[in-house]
Amino acid sequence: MKTDRLIGILSVLLQEEKITAPRLAEKFEVSRRTIQRDIEDLCRAGIPISTEQGAGGGIRIMEGYRMDRTLLTSKDMKMILAGLRSLDSVSGSHYYGQLMEKLKAGSSDYVSGRDSILIDLSSWYKESLTPKIEVIETAIEQRRLLSFRYYAPKGDEDREIEPYYLIFKWSSWYVWGWCGKREDFRLFKLNRMEELKISAAQYEVRMVPMPDLSTEKIFPGRIRVEAVFAPELRWRLVEEFGPHCYSELPDGTLLFCSDYTDEESLTDWLLTFRDGVRVLEPERIRQRLFQIAKNMTEIYGDDSRDGGTGTKGGKQNAKTKREGRITKSGGRKLRKNESAD
Question: What is the dihedral sign for C-alpha 247, 249, 251, 256?
């Protein structure tokens, strides 16, 4: 088939510095005229091919478009392909896949065996994320203003930026650009951006500082928190803060000490542990959690009186389930079938 032959010709050109039309014709068992038409088709497809007539002439990939694989080890090629594969996981086009095929062509001596690193940069929101990445990439390439609706904790509003970088950090995608409203460079999270539109207006490229993405810069530790966690929540603490973020108390509970950025995020995080955590400090967070619990009791208490799911018996069962977890003093109550040492 013609497509297979075109791919084969491209593979040969990537492997060899130069080759003549008669050799290609012999290799693919077609006429020289057919080879000439194939080369024309490859050029129309955007492959930078040059031909030289006369002695010492031939067909070759143009200078500046060929990568010298002798500079790359097998590990180098695998890492390059792993990086391209990760970008392909969030791409809505075939660009990165085609680029991988170009690099793989003629690289059997460099790339062998199974892949040892697989990176997937997509998320649960891939269907909505991929189109956003494509729009932002286009805006960056064409140097056009990007407008969107942004949803933040302090409220949602319309923004217009000069986009400069797409960034993957902290398991999420961001765009770094100059915000006209703030008159400064800002980092915007893609999952909070909607109604993205590329403006017809272009912008003059500024001197763009590289964003400081250090954890200390983006998430400064303003709040010192101390809390006691149930032993079965150890895995969460290790996953999110590392194995040195807590000390084990004599009764097996975990004393957690760390810094947090803001009260809103800290409160939300603590609530994910339900009744498996008791906050010791700061006091204002303790009061905030108490008020949330009180409000929830008022909301669901009505269900209890109306014969809903929160029946008196249900409350008693919930109380029984909480036995053996965190006590007021920070320790763990003994279960019915346990005895003290």
Answer: negative
pLDDT tens for 152-183 read: 878 899 999 999 999 887 778 899 999 999 99
Specify the pLDDT at position 183: 94
Query: CA-CA distances (angstroms) from residue 274 to 67, 229, 232, 254, 289?
Result: 56, 11, 13, 15, 10
Least confident of 21-25, 61-65, 74-78, 159-163: 74-78
Spatial CA neighbour of 148 closest among 98, 87, 189: 189
34 in Cβ contact with 44 (< 8 Å): no
C-alpha span between 324 and 265 (Å, rounded): 28
Q: Give the domains, in start order, of the chain with CATH numbers.
A: 2-61 (1.10.10.10), 126-216 (2.30.30), 223-322 (no CATH)
Q: Please choose, from the candidates 192, 146, 151, the residue with its C-alpha nearest in 3D space to the C-alpha of residue 165.
A: 146
Q: What is the pTM of this model?
A: 0.53
Check pLDDT > 60 for residue 326: no
**Which region, left, alpha or beta, applies to residue 303 given φ > 0 means left and ψ of -120 to 50 means alpha?**
alpha
- pLDDT band with cut points at 50, 70 and 90 for residue 84: low
- Distance from chain centroid for Cα 220: 22
What are the phi and psi torsion angles at 175 (to 5°)?
-125, 135
266, with CB counted inside 10 A (0-12, 13-18, 19+), is buried
- Cα separation of 181 and 157, whole Å? 11
Q: Which two tokens stand for residue 313?
A: 């018996």
Nearest to 221 by CA among 162, 261, 171: 261
